[in-house]
Design brief:
about 270 residues, alpha+beta, 4-stranded antiparallel sheet, two-stranded antiparallel ribbon, 7 helices, flat, disordered N terminus
Length: about 270
C-alpha cells in the first residue's frame, strides 16, 4: 500500500565507514592511466630513434669534402668546424707545403703562411728572404720581397729594440708569434683563392730589463693565393686590426715566465 504524503517517511542512516563507495572515482582514474601510457610510448619512440641515428654520418651537399660534413648549420651561430683533414706531411724550410688543390687546401695554406709572416724570423734579413722564397708565387716574389723588407726593416726593428740584424739585446728574448684563430674563404677558383685569417699575436721583448714588454693584439690577414707548381703560393696580402675580444681579468705573467714559455712551447702546422 503506497504511502500518502501525509504519512511519515522512515530513513535509515548507515555509519560513515559503511557508506557505499562512489563509482565516479573509478571513471576518473581511467584518463590518467591512458595519459601515462601515451607518455611512456612516446618516450620509448624518441629513445629508439636517437639510438638508430647515433651511428649515421651527417650528410652534406659536397662531393665528399669533409668540411661539408663537419660544418654546423648557419642557424647555430657558429662558424665552420674543423674539417678533420690531417695537416700536410711535408715542409720546406720549416714551413708547411704541398697543400691540397681545394678550397680547404687554400685555407690551410693561408693559415700556415700567416704564421710565417708573423714570426720573429721576419725581422732578420736572411730568414725573411728565405720565407718569401718559400711561400711566394714566383711571379709576385720580387714585389713581396721589397714590400716586406720595408715593413720589417729600418724603423720597425728599432721600434722593437732590435739591432739592424733583428737581434734582441743581450739577456732579452724577442717574441713575435701569430696564432690563427680561424679562416674564411672569400673567393675560390681552380687557380686563385682569397682567404681571411683571424689571428691573435704576441710581440715584444721578454726579460727583466725590457722596455717593450710582450703584448697581445688581434688582427685579420687577407691573403691572395695562386695555384702554381702544384701548390698554393702567396701572391699578395693585406692586414686590418681586430676583431678584438674584451680583455679578461687575468694577471700578467712575469718576464721570466714569458721567456720560459716562448722557449719551451713550439708552434703548430695548421690544416683546415
Amino acid at each position: 500500500m503506497p504511502l500518502s504524503d501525509d504519512q511519515p517517511h522512515t530513513r535509515t542512516r548507515l555509519p560513515v565507514g559503511e557508506q557505499p563507495s562512489p563509482q565516479p572515482s573509478l571513471r576518473q582514474s581511467r584518463p590518467l592511466r591512458t595519459l601515462l601510457t601515451v607518455l611512456v610510448v612516446v618516450t620509448l619512440l624518441v629513445v629508439a630513434i636517437a639510438i638508430a641515428n647515433r651511428g649515421k654520418p651527417a650528410t652534406g651537399t659536397g662531393t665528399g669534402g669533409s668540411a661539408d660534413r663537419a660544418a654546423p648549420s648557419a642557424a647555430s651561430g657558429a662558424g665552420p668546424g674543423p674539417s678533420g683533414d690531417q695537416p700536410v706531411g711535408t715542409a720546406v724550410n720549416g714551413i708547411a707545403a704541398g697543400f691540397p688543390h681545394s678550397d680547404q687546401g687554400a685555407q690551410s695554406a693561408a693559415a700556415n703562411y700567416a704564421v710565417a709572416i708573423g714570426s720573429a724570423d721576419m725581422f732578420r734579413t736572411d730568414s725573411r728572404h728565405t720565407i718569401v722564397a718559400t711561400i711566394a708565387d714566383p711571379g709576385a716574389a720580387a714585389t713581396l720581397q721589397s714590400r716586406l723588407d720595408q715593413g720589417f726593416g729600418g724603423d720597425t726593428v728599432t721600434r722593437y729594440g732590435l739591432d739592424a740584424q733583428g737581434r734582441a739585446p743581450k739577456g732579452l728574448t724577442f717574441v713575435s708569434r701569430t696564432v690563427p684563430v680561424g679562416t674564411k674563404s672569400t673567393g675560390y677558383t681552380e687557380t686563385d683563392a682569397k682567404v681571411e685569417v683571424w689571428c691573435t699575436g704576441l710581440t715584444g721583448l721578454a726579460g727583466e730589463r725590457s722596455v717593450q714588454p710582450v703584448t697581445t693584439n688581434w688582427f685579420t690577414l687577407t691573403l691572395s693565393l695562386h695555384w702554381t707548381g702544384g701548390d698554393w703560393k702567396l701572391a699578395d696580402f693585406t692586414s686590418r686590426q681586430g676583431p678584438a675580444p674584451m680583455p679578461g681579468d687575468q694577471q700578467a705573467a712575469t718576464a721570466e715566465e714569458i721567456t720560459g714559455a716562448v722557449q719551451q712551447f713550439g708552434g703548430f702546422r695548421y690544416a683546415r
